[in-house]
Design goal:
186 residues; mainly alpha; Outer membrane efflux proteins (OEP); 73% helix; elongated
């Protein structure tokens, strides 16, 4: 991992790198779910996109007005209108579902962070106790190393949970605005 990182950064392969930044827990979003949903419904580009697609389907169907009503071209144009209407009607539900999903994910990741904090504390205490046992001759060096490994793994899991939580908070905040998906007007 060290060599891959150094190669990616353009450093010497065996250079020691000391990371100076830390991951800090951002505050849980205080924006109420209802307000986020209302804001998303007002600001999302996808509503304008589905409206645009519906208008394009209607305009495209005008091309086939003179065709017989049983022709495949006419029926295909009518099907495009129906699909566009369905997408337009369902878009507010999709937006609400997206915001709710991101809200639940944020709270789930918050719980994982709190659990991770406790796990790190417990692992640290385990290392301390095993070290005391080792000092008194009641544990082996392998026991101490296993406890230290458990502590480092708990720290790693906590860092991952913290990163995922911070990203989940950002995703929730972004979901209440224009969202994270660009509109595609083709």
């Amino acid at each position: 991992m060290k060599m891959a990182f150094n190669q990616f950064m353009g450093y010497n392969l065996m250079q020691n790198v000391a990371l100076t930044d830390t991951i800090k827990e951002v505050p849980l979003s205080t924006k109420p779910l209802k307000d986020s949903i209302d804001s998303a419904l007002k600001n999302r580009n996808s509503i304008a996109e589905t409206s645009y697609r519906l208008e394009m389907a209607k305009l495209g169907a005008n091309t086939y007005k003179a065709y017989p009503k049983t022709s495949s071209a006419y029926l295909g144009a009518q099907m495009k209108i129906l699909l566009a209407e369905t997408a337009y009607k369902n878009e507010p539900l999709a937006i609400e579902s997206d915001v709710r999903t991101k809200y639940m994910a944020m709270n789930e990741e918050y719980s994982k962070v709190q659990t991770g904090k406790k796990s790190v504390e417990n692992s640290k205490e385990t290392v301390r106790l095993v070290q005391l046992q080792y000092d008194s001759g009641m544990a082996t060096l392998t026991d101490v190393e296993e406890a230290q490994l458990g502590y480092y793994n708990a720290q790693l899991a906590y860092s991952k949970a913290l990163l995922k939580y911070n990203l989940a908070v950002n995703e929730y905040d972004l979901s209440s605005g224009v969202g994270m998906e660009p509109a595609s007007f083709q």
